[in-house]
Structure formats: C-alpha cells, structure tokens
Amino acid sequence: MPRGTFITFEGLDGSGKTTQMRRLAAWLTASGRTVVTLRQPGSTALGDRLRVLLLDSRSESALGPIDPLAEMALMFADRAQSIAEVIAPALAVGSIVLCDRFTDSTEAYQGAGRRLGSQRVLALHAAVCDSLQPDLTLLLLPPLEVALARARRRNHRQAPTQPPTQSAPSLPTLPQPAAEDRFERETDEFYARIHAAYLQIAARDPHRVLTVADVAIGDNSIDAIELRIRGLVAPRLS
To answer: What's the mean pLDDT when you consider all of the chain?
Structure first.
C-alpha cells in the first residue's frame, strides 16, 4: 500500500491555522480521502497531559518556572508519542495526516523564541523523530501584530474562572478547561523572533514550506484562504 501524505500547519497562535486545518480535513474527507487530524502538543493520552502542563499559565503557579530546555524536551516527548501512536500508523495505511504544529514550531518557539538555537532543535528532531519530515507544510503568517491581538483576545475569552492551583501533586494538577495562555503572555520581542524564524525556515526549505503570508485575519478572508490552501494541496496529492 502506498505511504500516506503528511501535511502540517504552522504559524503563530491567531494565524487561523487550526480553522484552516479543519476546513481542509472536511474537504478531503468529502472527496473520499481518509484523513487523520491531530495537534501538538496533544492528541494522545500522554500528549493531552503534556499540553496542559506546557500551555496553561497556571502550571508555573503550581510547579514553578519551566526551564527552556525542559520545555523543548517535553515538546519532543509529545511528538515522539504522536509519531508512534498516530502519525506513523496512519501513514502506513495510506491516510492523509493533518497535524497542527510539528518540529517547525519547536524551532521557531524554543529555538528562536527561547534562544536555544536551531541546531539543538534539529539534532533532537533527528534523534527523537528519526528525521521524519512533513511532505508539505502550510505556513500561515499574517502580520505579527494582527495574529497576537487575535490570540490574546481568544485566550482572554476562554480563560477559566478557577483560582490557580497552589500545590503540585501528580499530573494532571490543573482544573479544566486549560487556559492555554502561557505563551501568549510572552513579550512582543519574543514573538518577533518567532516570526523571523518562520520566515527563515520557509526560505531554507521552499519546496516543503508554502507560505500563505498575505492573509488578513477576519471572517471575510477565511473562505479565500481555504481556496488558496486547496490549490496548494491538490497538486501534492495528485
């Protein structure tokens, strides 16, 4: 059986990538394709627990600051589990795998944002992921200030009302739903480094990484972006 196709969505929070991944999955499914979707961190039992730890700002209230190297290692622990449990089996049976974030996110957020450097990230990727690369990466990269404003508004609306957890028993320690605002609390300079890193990744691997850079975030643009993405994906599948 032919190997399936591995497509990832990348970009800052607030770029619209999650919405567009869901729309692409619906379109592919309607056309008769078998599609598997997942997000990172998450989408496995282990990954969902790591997601709460990594993305909920209350995790640091409970456990203390997460060291950047520990943060990167946890991201790759989630990724290794996703590959073993979801991605590799789906590709082996010919499915299309759509993944919300992959190693490009770690290179941008931890490598550039946390200043750990690309070399460390790529070396860990080779060791942990056996150098698995997406067949296609769709990078949604609207203006930095637009993406940040939307992400911060969304997380403000979704913030849970429970008080922070003060103790640190075994995971999961935090009440649900997760706030998922830990990264959104970072500075604009942190996100400027991430934005620049994504541009460098796209320039380094232009065949794999296709950038949808001039998207304006708003309801009127969502359909247009969806059609553009279909136009980029269809030739790769044929």
So the answer is: 87
Is residue 208 within 8 A of residue 136, CB to CB? The reply is: yes
Cα–Cα distance, 214 to 140 (Å, whole number): 9
Average pLDDT over residues 5-22: 94
Taking each helix axis from N to C end, the angle separating 68-82 and 118-128, rounded to the nearest 10 degrees, works out to 30
User: Crossing angle for the helix pair 68-82 and 45-55, nearest 10 degrees?
Assistant: 160
Global confidence as pTM: 0.86
73 vs 157, more confident: 73
CA–CA dist 183, 204 (Å, integer): 26
Is the distance from CB of 212 to CB of 225 less than 8 angstroms? Answer: yes
